[in-house]
Structure formats: structure tokens, C-alpha cells
Specification:
five-stranded mixed sheet; elongated; alpha/beta; six-stranded parallel sheet
């Protein structure tokens, strides 16, 4: 049995991850941690049948790493950097699903985890990761006369925009085109913007309700349009994917991995 520790266990994804670990016959929960000062600290964790487990939510992340074979982190970029240092100290494999890293934070994450097995992904859904591969192939096959636009929608509570998944889809499209996304993307359009810049990848963001996640990549040509899309109706698809990734990561050599590695879809 693989001992899986959960960071950010008090949040929506944390609760979904708890359920996914408890459902998994190959895994056992090693503990759950919330941020210091959280009202969740000290609360009993509950089994699938509603009975209390032998765990209470802690704020001691270091102890969680020490007692786990692998740890899953769905928190914030700032918290994930702290957790990355703890993972390196304890040499514990780490799965990171936090999104919204800026370039400096991502560079720091890469540095902190250089000597451990790290699996970082913007989305842990099987369907979304297949979508990445399809978007890359379509962008490579279709010429620059097809404009690429990426539309995403999430629940009203999501803090970062565009979503990490939308940006990852943009990276897939840019890879297919052989261009750099950072210098070929339009994140905001407002007012008199002028004609669309040829070769750029556009992003549009919607927020509202309880939408778990919707993404569409449009290839708009003259007289025709191709749309590749994915809709998530339950965040359990992300939680089960993250647990699958955690099981896969245990025993891997130090390095950076993503869901394409887990699913055998690496280009």
C-alpha cells in the first residue's frame, strides 16, 4: 500500500482527493494538512461511510512528508514552494496541482525540486491531457491561416486567470506551431484593439456558478472552424487522476514529470 499525504485537505479539491485516496485499493492515507491558522486544523477526517478516521487535520507539513511515500499538493504557488523545500529535505516524491505560478515562482519550484521526483500538471483529467495531444497535432497540421483562440470557464471562486489548463493548451498549440507562447499570446482585449495579430493565440476567460472546468480550443479559418473541447462535470476526475499520478510517481528517479508521462502520451 502506498502512503499518500494530502496538502490543502480542507479545500474543495482537498476533500475530493481525500475521497479518491480512500476509494483507491492501492493507497492508504498517511495524513492531511491545512495551512497554519485554518479553522480546519484539529478537525477529524471522515471515512466514506461517515465514521471518523484515526486522523485529525494537522498544520505540520514537515511531519506529513516524513510519514508519506508521496504527497499531493493542491494549494497555492506560494505554499507549494514551501512544500517543495520540505519535499526536497525529506526526499519525498511530490505531485503538484497548484496553478497560477508566475515565471519566477516556477523557476524557484524547478530549483527546489531538482533532486526529487516531481510531477506537476495544470490538469489531471485523462480527457484534458488527451486534448493537449490533439491540440498540438491540429496546430502542427493547420497553417497560420487558422487563428487559434482558447476559451475557458470555471466556478466563481477560482482565483487565477487564464486557468492553468488554458495556458497549458496554449503551450500545446504553440509547440505545434513552433512558436513561443509568451511572445505570441493575447490575454486581454478591450476597446479599439485593431485587427487580430496574425499568428497569435488568443485567450478568453469566463467565471461563474459552480463550473468544474470547461475548455475549448478553436481553429478559425476562412469558411470553416474546428473546435476541440472538454467539459468537466465533477472535480473527482481531477482527484482520481492525481492519485493515479501519485501511485505512478513512487519509485521514479529524480526528475520532472507530467500527466503525459503517466498516460504514455509524451511527444
Amino acid at each position: 500500500m502506498i502512503r499518500i499525504g494530502l496538502l490543502g485537505i480542507g479545500g474543495r479539491m482537498g476533500q475530493a482527493l481525500l475521497k479518491a485516496v480512500l476509494e483507491c485499493p492501492e493507497a492508504v492515507l498517511s495524513g492531511g494538512v491545512a495551512r497554519p491558522g485554518s479553522p480546519d486544523v484539529g478537525r477529524a477526517l471522515m471515512a466514506l461511510d461517515g465514521t471518523p478516521l484515526d486522523f485529525r487535520i494537522s498544520d505540520d507539513a514537515s511531519a506529513l512528508f516524513a510519514q508519506s511515500d508521496v504527497v499531493i499538493d493542491f494549494t497555492t504557488p506560494k505554499a507549494s514552494l514551501t512544500h517543495a523545500r520540505l519535499a526536497a529535505t525529506h526526499k519525498t516524491p511530490l505531485v503538484v496541482g497548484s496553478t497560477g505560478f508566475n515565471p519566477d515562482q516556477q523557476a524557484a519550484m524547478d530549483q527546489e525540486t531538482a533532486h526529487i521526483a516531481l510531477l506537476q500538471a495544470a490538469n489531471f483529467s485523462l480527457g484534458v491531457n488527451l486534448l493537449h495531444a490533439l491540440v498540438r497535432q491540429a496546430a502542427q497540421a493547420l497553417g497560420p491561416e487558422f487563428d487559434i483562440e482558447i476559451l475557458e470557464m470555471h466556478h466563481r471562486h477560482k482565483a487565477d486567470a487564464p486557468s492553468g489548463t488554458a495556458l497549458a493548451l496554449g503551450e500545446a498549440a504553440a509547440s505545434g506551431r513552433g512558436i513561443d507562447l509568451a511572445s505570441h499570446s493575447d490575454r486581454v482585449r478591450d476597446g479599439i484593439t485593431g485587427p487580430r495579430t496574425e499568428g497569435h493565440i488568443g485567450f478568453a476567460t469566463l467565471r461563474g456558478g459552480d463550473v468544474a472546468g470547461e475548455h475549448a480550443v478553436l481553429f478559425a479559418g476562412t469558411g470553416e472552424r474546428i473546435t476541440l473541447s472538454h467539459q468537466a462535470f465533477d472535480r473527482m476526475i481531477f482527484a482520481r487522476g492525481a492519485v493515479k499520478a501519485a501511485l505512478w510517481l513512487v519509485g521514479k528517479k529524480a526528475g520532472q514529470y507530467d500527466m503525459m508521462d503517466v498516460l504514455g502520451l509524451k511527444a
